[in-house]
Design goal:
- The complex is a heterodimer of chains A (778) and B (195).
- With 778 residues, chain A is of the alpha+beta class.
- In chain A, strand 4 and strand 5 form a beta hairpin.
- The radius of gyration of chain A is 34 Å and the shape is elongated.
- In chain B, helix 3 packs antiparallel against helix 4.
- The termini of chain B are far apart.
- At the A-B interface, helix 6, helix 7 and strand 4 of A face helix 3 of B.
Amino acid sequence: MKVSARWAVGLWLSGVLACVILISRAEFSTDLSAFLPRSPSPTQQILVEQLRDGVVSRLVLLGVDGAPPEILAKLSKNLATRLRSEPTFASVNSGEDVGLEKDRDFLWRNRYLLSPAVSAERFSAAGLRRALENDLQLLGSPAGMLVKRVLPNDPTGELLQLLEQLEGTVHPATRDGVWFSRDGRRALLLLQTRAPGFDIDAQQEALAIIHRAFEQARAASGAQGARVLASGPGVFSVSTRAKIKGDALRFSMLATFLVASLLLLIYRSPRVLLLALLPVASGALAGVAAVSLGFGSVHGITLGFGATLIGEAVDYAIYLFTQTAPGSPPEQTLPRIWPTLRLGVLTSLCGFSAMLFSGFTGLAQLGLFSIAGLVVAVSVTRWVLPALMPRNFSAAASAAFAPAVLRLMQHSARLRFPLFLAVAMAALFLSLPRGGLWDDELSGLSPLSQEDQQLDELLRGDIGAPDARYLLLVNAPSEDQALAASEALAGTLQAMVGQGSLAGFDSAALVLPSQGAQRARQAALPPAEVLRANLEQALAGLPFRAELFEPFLGDVAAAKKQALLDRRSLSGTSLALKLDSLLIKRSAGWVAVLPLRGVSEPAQLRELTGKVGGISPMLLDLKGEADQLYRTYRHEALVQSLLGSLAIVVLLGANLRSPHRVYEVLAPLIAAVIITTAVLSGSGQKLTIFHLVGLSLVVAIGSNYSLFFERQNFASQNRERTVASLLLANVSTVIGFGMLSFSHIPVLHGIGMTVAIGAMLSLIFSAILTAHGEAGKR
Amino acid sequence: MAALLMIAASCSPAFAADETSKAAVAWDLKQLMSELAQVKTAKSRFVERKYLSVLKEPLEFSGTLVYAAPGRLEKTTLLPKPESLVVEQNKLTIEREGGRQRRTLMLQDYPEIWAFVESIRATLAGDLETLNRFYNTSLEGDAEHWQLTLQPNEPKMLAMVSLIKISGSRNWVDSIETLEADGDRSLMTVVKDDS
């Protein structure tokens, strides 16, 4: 081994060690924030916070089915009791009244400070008279049974008012005391975890607790056939992580196994096989290490992408081995193929470096991963492999099929015209306006399976969980000002509910009014003797028993001088959780979140909310914002791909110094990209950002093929080996990526399918468009 | 405790009566129900008196009841204040002040109200299955003069309503008496409205 080779091997070994150390300390993330811009707008920032940490992210929806309703009800109660004893859950609601006593008690005791209906007019003689007449009518209705219990304390119906506002209009059906789907087939539970949705380890633990408790509850209720279905953001992150891990690992291993078998078949040497995998493994390690060093954490999708590196990096070793003539040392092969290889790698780097500058962490990670991976893989091929290759290396057998392929290629030029025709047709097909080429919804990017999404919709529909599509946000310097602003908005929103353009809304001020509002309500309550006189006047001629309303007089007097409510007053109730989720402390000031239900005219809402005096609320359309974000993301990726393509043209122009040669190299790649896109779109797939990344890879991999084909002056022996190496490299790429296309995860499926088709087409088109020149010369 | 005693008192003779009537004339709940189910439409006037502990004197309401098989029940109160309650399938619509105030509830969302509605509707429809879902039933008397006693089987409902007694003759319901857990009661008497 030469000194320089020793240095190379030593350097490589220490590099591998450094990477292993870096990776062992790396953090891996799977949350959505990687798909958000690095410098988000305020609404996007809140969107991210809501998705990561908001109350919506903590919801777990459970459906229990597979048994008769009576048994399901028992099972549901049993399960809820078990889960309530777990500190993991902030709230467990099965539809039973359990645990709501504290809430009701809080509302009951503080009803005169909490109810927005409290006004001086309401407690005047005329106001009380109206209330009492209304009570009388209510007593005659089916609701009378409920009303008469609270009547002596609350003739003006403040509790009813509060409950109606808090409950909202949608709730699940009840059967045997617990929530059920309308068709009675599923019992429903709504849980809230203490841990935020992005804490996947905690969410996984919570899921494990749910399943354990369910097993016990099922055994206790004797419902053998019953099962529990879980859904919600936390559940999704857990299953996504597991799936990405599982799929990436499974398909990478399968692809590695198949490629390894192929290489073993061709080279018939385990040692050579190991050597062929060295650049890939080193590249993947370096990629992950570079990302973790550059970004602090590695996203699951980047890791999944690691599998794809096998496809390109294994090619380098194949080129070296297959093009090494029997008996001649690799040092002689390298000078011949290195310029082409180097140009191929540089071309790939151009494609990926554009991604590196993306404003989106997810894309930038993919870019860095690819660049670091490819540079390391090609460097290992160039400097480390030759030192480790056996002295008497021969890959003679591997080129045995080459003459047959070459004979086939001699007629390939005839296919030029049909190919041009095919490209033109594909381009025409793509330019036709048909329902959109791109998938414009963020959900298209989601790693969730169709079934998971359907289950979630089903359970959400059953339970009437807030879809939380529209939120109204108000920023304020202090907590109390945020509450006061929410109260100012409530009037406008209530009017919209009256008009029917809004089904309802939620607000932190419903459970904790601003200090100002509380003081105003206290001031509106008349002094004891005035209230007594008003009541007496109002009662004249009504059949209520004398002295019936003494408790009412007492309660109002107490409310008039009670201490104002603050955040601490709510502790121990589930309302505190509501307050925390709707009134959020941010780095600068506070933001009040008002989730809206049943928005039928968002435009009207935007217009109306702009007019509320003094405050400027923002309307946040979570789905619209997320989709918009995704479109921006994809647009940016598209622009960067185009910039990358431009850089490739410039690079090739500078190296080849001939427009014709640049065309020879690029034509097959352009043809492959167009036809691949048409095939994908024609097969009913809507293109996502992952397909775009796949197309970049097609250009990166395909450029190696066309560059090798484009080299005009090589001897027949070398030509055979070159063709053999290209074919072998192509087959291993198609295997590697073809495996990924079997994954159900959109990212892996999209990239796998695109590259498998695109790489194969690139090779065939290179043979047709680029190789004909020198084949014809012979 | 008082409520429990009352149930016990009203249940055991009912049970005994049921036994004897079965033996004597072979007339039972099933037969009553199938006879009630024959009625497709019925129109009547009602007077309802509520005896409530919070009031010095009973409340009196009067108006019309219209039933159309299988599941539509319309209770229109005319006095003292107009109000209409319409139950159709699983929807309850309440209208007041000549339609200016209108609320629609899904019965599933309010189990107590649902149970209460079914005590009348399911009886009129002769729907024993639905009755059994909410109540333990017992029957006294004979076809000419029967009394159906309903006892809620859900603890929450039982905490409010101890018993509902429905009496009638042949396929006609004469009166509905509701005994509430706190001792309040209401009595609704129904007469045919042939107008």
